[in-house]
Amino acid sequence: MDSLISPALQAYMDRWVSPLPALLQELEEVTREQHPEAHMLSGAQQGQFLSMISHMIRPRRVLEIGTFTGYSALCLASGLEAEGLLYTIELREADAEWAQRYFDRSPHGQQIRLLRGNAQEWLPKLTETWDLVFIDADKTSYTDYFNKVLPQVRSNGFILADNIFFHGQVLHQPLSGKNAQAIWAFAEAVRDCAAVEQVPIPLRDGLMLIRKK
Ligand SMILES: C[S@@+](CC[C@H](N)C(=O)[O-])C[C@H]1O[C@@H](n2cnc3c(N)ncnc32)[C@H](O)[C@@H]1O
């Protein structure tokens, strides 16, 4: 994946970040070795960031849209309060299977509910109030996901959205490609939404951290 982070800066950051638990290290390694789309995995820097955010919030309910092989779900689940639950939605059956195998081996696995299928079909069925939502699935649905989940995010709850740089494509006008255009439209929708405050974070492929007022 093209990155806006220079190799030297990446190496510098990699030098200082705390290692994640052995199970997550194994999952990253195995995904990189065996999955043709391994670039989608959050990785250690972002994984540790997600874990930190979760430990700061100590959420009771977390929603993730886009499980992939389960890496970010495990990072986010690590900060759940004792009675907390994380729901994560994955469209592709093979990825869901992969993720579930790792959830089953994790001390947080019992707190993870893997929902197999299309997020568009699952979202109307979920009635929880969210402390934290991580949007990391199809970019063309980001604005729609944001509009759909926001009413169920508690006041002072958070939404994190991944890939807001879309491999740097958002910097080149006119925007080429539907994904870069969708990310731009999402950023505009967030900026124009009076119910939230937001800050872009230049970690990996860019995160948008959004707080509901
Ligand atoms: C970027 S990956 C997620 C990476 C993961 N969050 C991580 O950090 O390790 C995006 C995932 O979203 C899934 N996805 C795409 N469209 C979806 C949809 N409409 N509903 C549910 N999952 C979807 C893809 O199959 C893919 O596994």
Could you say what the CATH architecture is?
A: 3-Layer(aba) Sandwich
- Classified by CATH, the class is Alpha Beta
Overall 3D form: globular
Low-confidence stretches: none
Explain the overall architecture.
The protein has 213 residues and is α/β, with parallel strands linked by helices. The protein has a single domain (7-212), classed as 3-Layer(aba) Sandwich (Rossmann fold), CATH 3.40.50.150. It contains eight helices and seven strands; from the N terminus they run αααβαβαβαβαβαββ. The protein has helices spanning 7-16, 22-34, 43-57, 71-77, 93-105, 119-122, 142-149, 178-191, and strands at residues 61-65, 85-90, 112-116, 130-135, 153-162, 196-201, 207-212. It has a seven-stranded mixed β-sheet with strand order 3-2-1-4-5-7-6, sandwiched between helices. Helix 5 links the parallel strand 2 and strand 3 (112-116). The N and C termini lie far apart (34 Å). The mean pLDDT is 97. The protein binds S-adenosylmethionine. Residues 40-42, 66, 68, 71-72, 89-92, 95, 118-120, 136-138 line the site of S-adenosylmethionine. S-adenosylmethionine is lined by residues 40-42, 66, 68, 71-72, 89-92, 95, 118-120, 136-138.
Helices and strands in order:
Elements: H1 7-16, H2 22-34, H3 43-57, E1 61-65, H4 71-77, E2 85-90, H5 93-105, E3 112-116, H6 119-122, E4 130-135, H7 142-149, E5 153-162, H8 178-191, E6 196-201, E7 207-212
Parallel strand pairs: 1-2, 1-4, 2-3, 4-5
Antiparallel strand pairs: 5-7, 6-7
Helix pairs in contact: 3-4
